[in-house]
């Protein structure tokens, strides 16, 4: 053993030279520094610093009531004073998004919970069997005979034909759309017979198949599958909307699962798909969008998706600036918001347009518009807002 190790007074074989206060305590040691043993500080109760200096937030330093950690003292906090580093306060500015920024790629991230509060898993393709054939025939019959008639379009024969005839016909060429039809039908049966666990299991299985097939289809979006992908996302939104009935209202909690699923199956996909179906006269989704009395295509903006008709005297403009009046207070930013939240004209317009859309739904309810019109606006919510 080298001499520098054997000469250390704290490394004798008996260990009797250690003082009682050193017992049970970790001692940091390096060769040649025997006389400068550094003791670790005891653990103290703490909380995470949200308003500390930039150094402490970057290093995830915790705040305690002592100068040995980030005590948020100005101009130099305890942690920076101890480390002899520059203490910089305030938050770094968020880089603004420029026009050259590449838009985020659309993707599916299912986060919805089921009726029994179990997580969705993407199912493997079930094996071919007589039981599977009977189950899927039963689900298709349920959808075409009953489920499609419950989508709240009692007086719209065009919509009834599209949901009951045209969409199933298109689904024979696209697995994701076919599975989404089975999913809708299975959920409908589970709602009608809630005491039969097998119905819920069927719904879970086909929802998983829908999500897997839909992700694959979106990954290779093109002119041949864009229409089916949009309709599949609509079926998923209807499922999540129906599941809101199972959400307890006391105490009130925001419908996070619905918003999360809707955001991944809404505007992002439709904007991408619109490039392929905007000029397709045979597109079912295009037909449903154009048939809405308060929406039409925007010929003035290349690549745009939808907009409300600002120049005709049809139904009230769902994005009219006066619509946001009842919710204007939600746009008021507190000093804390100004200090901590990113903000630019694009973010402000996203908040403002969302409030105008929500207010238009409230105004439609107050005006006692037909349930079909209100239902359509609710289901289209994630598609229309930014």
From TrEMBL:
Task: Return the Gene3D superfamilies for the record.
Answer: Zn(2)-C6 fungal-type DNA-binding domain
Q: Which GO terms describe its molecular function?
A: DNA-binding transcription factor activity, RNA polymerase II-specific; zinc ion binding
Alphabetically ordered keywords of this record = Nucleus
Region annotation (Disordered) ranges: 1-28
Q: Where is the Zn(2)-C6 fungal-type domain?
A: 47-98
Keyword Nucleus found = yes
> Does Nucleus show up as a keyword for this record?
yes
What is the top-level taxon of the source organism? Eukaryota
| Residue intervals passing through the bilayer | none
Extent of Polar residues compositional bias:
1-20
Q: Which PANTHER family match?
A: STEROL REGULATORY ELEMENT-BINDING PROTEIN ECM22, ZN(2)-C6 FUNGAL-TYPE DOMAIN-CONTAINING PROTEIN
Q: What is the protein name given in its UniProt record?
A: Zn(2)-C6 fungal-type domain-containing protein
Native source organism of the sequence: Cadophora malorum
